[in-house]
Amino acid sequence: MKKILHISKYYFPFIGGVEEVAADITAALKGEEYQQKIICFNEDSTTDGVTTHRGETVHDMIDGVEVIRCGTAVKLASQALSVTYFNELKKVMESYRPDIVVFHYPNPFVSQMLLMYKKMDFKLVVYWHLDITKQKVLSKFFYMQNIELLKRADKVIATSPNYIKGSPFLTRFRDKCTVIPNCINNERLKVTPEIEKLAHKIRNKYKGKIICFGLGRHIPYKGFIKLVEASRYLDDRFAILIGGKGELTGSLIKEASGDSKVHFLGKISDSELIACLLACDVFCFPSITKNEAFGIALAEGMYFGKPAVTFTIEGSGVNYVNVKDVTGLECPNSDSRAYAKALEKLASDPELREKLGNAGRERVLENFTYDRFRTRIIDMIEAL
User: Fold this and answer.
1) What is the CA 50 to chain-centroid distance, rounded?
2) What is the pLDDT of residues 170-199, one digit of tens each?
3) What pLDDT is recorded for position 189?
4) Residue 319 belongs to what domain range?
5) DSSP character for 72?
6) Do 215 and 303 reside in the same domain of the chain?
7) What is the b/e burial string over 53-73, where b = at least 16 CB atoms within 10 angstroms of the residue's CB?
């Protein structure tokens, strides 16, 4: 039985894009001829009755897989640091002796520790979620480390061909790269009679309006400020619904002050999310930088047959998920007036909305479902 070690920044019950992918990979390989362990940092989090505490170093079992959580002492440039991580990694590498290590990048401080074992006999899969772009100094400091990591890698996973072309690192190691797009959680998105009733309630609340829905953390690269700005150019036919919260929520609300078209929903449940996706006419995904490497929420909106409106982001998978003029509309990056014009175009053309929405749903079903993801992961692991 092959032994696999997954190295993720965090893990369930902490929920984030990288963590969801790590959980999807673990689930994909469960029941196959593999033994699995996970090592990560700990963080304060509670999901589905599971609670973790940032400062504790513990060994948990999640869905039959051991999760080694190393207590986080401090964060530096958004990177967790732990006084116990080095010893825990040493123990798992030397006693468990994995045949395959799946390392989720970015995680630069752990990269350095992992490279200490580069001569050990294991296959290394580097799951390259995104380049470090925000922390300019940090990215320069770890440049050569990234090169060493990719040299040691047996396989490098990118979530889209766009990211391979746009990354200064992945282009150098193109021969090692393979594309495995992220996936939506079909089970999580099931529609129930109760959700249909809630969607009907939302439609009635905004009766006669073109409902434009966007969801995500309120942080700079998600670009919700551009959606709020776009609303200023729209007439009263529109209702702009924005779900989620974050560090910019207050400033977004202030920016939208006096604009009755914009409605902030706050943090919403899965049921509310699905209801909004059923009720809306257009899915808004206004991310503006390469930090948005793919866009699971974008694929979820398209799964419900909604035309998407995105910005052009050089080197990002966003424009791989939403194909310009095929599954949705695409606007020059950060151009809020152009974004408003795209929404107006969709509002005035129901047939175009239906055509793009149907094509978007087909694209998700063909490329971004869990079943497709699972097949690709198993094929990649077996090929090693």
Assistant:
1) 22
2) 999 999 999 999 999 888 899 999 999 999
3) 95
4) 193-367
5) P
6) yes
7) ebeebeebeeeebebbbbbbe
